[in-house]
Amino acid sequence: MNTPETPKISLYVTKGEKTDYLCLSHCWGSSINEQPLETTEETYAVFQKGIEWSLLPQTFQDAVTFTRRLGLRYLWIDSLCVIQGSKEDWMREAGKMAEVYTNATLVLAAASSSNSHQGLFRQYRTTTKLGPEDSTRKGQLMIRELPEPSTSRYGVADTEPDVLPLLRRAWVFQERFLARRTLFFTPLELVWECWRMMDSESGHPWIDQYAKRNMAPATSGTGVVVWGNDGADYPWEKWQAVVVAYSNLQLTHQSDVLPAIAGLARIFARHFQCEYLAGLWHSTLLNDLCWTRDVAQSSFSVSYAGRPLLGHIPTWSWASLSGQPVVFYGEEDTAGHEADSLCDMVEATCESSIGDHFIQVDEGRVVISGYLIAFTVGTLCRVVSRHGDVLLPCDSSVYEELEACPDYDWSKPPLGRPRIAKGERIFAIPIRFWGSLGTRQDEGGVDALVVSPVQSGTHRAQGGTFVRIGIATLRISNFRSCQYIFEGGGSLLRALEGLIETVQYALQPGENSYANEQYRKVERQAKLLLPPYMSDIYERKDSDRKDGFFQWNAQDVKELERQLDTERVRVEEWYMRDRRGQEQVHKRITVVIV
């Protein structure tokens, strides 16, 4: 794009030089008639010679005008600067998206236009003079009516009119994150956003800035760091927050679910320093696996029945459910609790035919060493929540019932996913335990992936290959005889330590602690989870109850402390056998999830 004196417009192919430029962020439109001007292999050479002004849609013309008013010559527009219809050029440019928006001097956001023909500029509400003109004073006080946006994040909350369609687009999400400076053209006023602040003509920064605010500016030339000022301690928590926000946005092509967030993922990769696995990270994979559909934002009214999900993305990735909002399971429950891993990750891989795992994944698998708890489905998917949670009566001897959140409607599966009918055998793979065993707090639970075998006839002792079909929380209070899943972790030790602490507190003079329901909960946890060799303690105590409570004494504390020492030795022996590759009493099996 030349200077204002020579208003010729052309497609410029850079040769490695550095200069200031602007980017345009815009909606392409949902119909063929709304599509923007595109560079194709046929027009690539022609556009380098020149582009007729009349060919540019209104939003492009306005962006050119604004760029020239700033005295700049270069403007990057995706539909013109990426050859459309060329998979090779698209893959190459998609991989550079982070650089394009991060290095731009300014991003112009056509926030209120749903396609490229509606223009960048808007006619704001009429400005009114406040009071009569006074020749003795300099200037005139003017007012302009604005709605009260502070009530519900105007233009972003679902209850408000869709006045900012641009911010509902998934591709725009990373454009906002990556841009150093963005100017939003809204129907109300201009809104400015940068790493340091958001401001507007009215002085009210009413566009939601939560995600952007929690990303910090780079302190060096290495790009963007991934933790900001909301108190989160770990990059993986930031990444999960990004995924949750991103999954609520719209994609025209669901196959873009990974490419549209690839620029952000590349930046996070600098901090994780590990393999990126279809939207998850190798170093935090066991936590990342615990995602679920956001039942507050989605339901089975969006049916996948008869049509494929993204079959090239493994079922254990949230990206395989493109189009469904997700959250990370137990996000509120696990807060402040120490989580114990109940399995080991043996292997996790993804294959990309183009050699770029950020842009494209063709297949992937996760290999876990853990336990399988088998269930046989009784009454099919008896709905207990309008959001799609299901309660499945099961014949399992170790657990009374499975409360699960399915990844899709099991009775009407998409192509390539199993239909789960009455009598089908499904499995739960315990991933992690969270909670505060042995304390006067909630008892916690076990997060488990719900899977279905690829081949029928799979037995829980055999392992094999499975696909993910949902996720569940197994409540400790419902366990019967599978305490073995806690072996190798610190849950039982903490249960004993907490029980001893509780009994010691109860024995203090003047403490009527047995009247506290929390103590009853602690005793129930311990009885359920402590090793079988400690059952004799509870048998003796059962015969000496008062008002339904166990009656502890100082001698009991000494016995519990001896049992604690025994349990520590047992745990150490477990780890020693594990290090030596020796078989455990309760052998873990190898499970492959694809």
SSE order and pairing:
Layout: E1 22-25, H1 44-49, H2 58-69, E2 75-76, H3 78-81, H4 87-94, H5 97-103, E3 106-109, E4 127-129, E5 142-144, H6 170-178, E6 181-185, E7 190-194, E8 198-200, H7 210-213, H8 235-247, H9 262-272, E9 276-277, E10 280-281, H10 285-288, E11 291-293, E12 326-328, E13 340-341, E14 344-351, E15 363-370, E16 373-376, E17 382-383, E18 390-393, E19 401-406, E20 425-434, E21 445-453, E22 464-475, H11 491-506, H12 517-529, H13 535-542, E23 545-546, E24 549-550, H14 554-580, E25 589-593
Question: Please, could you describe this protein's structure?
Answer:
The protein has a domain at 1-126 and 149-213. Helix content is 24%, strand content 19%. The chain has helices at 44-49, 58-69, 78-81, 87-94, 97-103, 170-178, 210-213, 235-247, 262-272, 285-288, 491-506, 517-529, 535-542, 554-580; strands spanning 22-25, 75-76, 106-109, 127-129, 142-144, 181-185, 190-194, 198-200, 276-277, 280-281, 291-293, 326-328, 340-341, 344-351, 363-370, 373-376, 382-383, 390-393, 401-406, 425-434, 445-453, 464-475, 545-546, 549-550, 589-593. Strands 13, 14, 15, 16, 17, 18, 19, 20, 21, 22 and 25 form an eleven-stranded mixed beta sheet that branches. By secondary structure, the protein is α+β, with helices and mostly antiparallel strands. The chain is elongated, with a radius of gyration of 30 Å. It starts with 21 loop residues before the first strand and ends with a strand. The model is unreliable at 150-161, 217-224, 331-336, 380-389, 393-400 and 437-442 (pLDDT under 50).
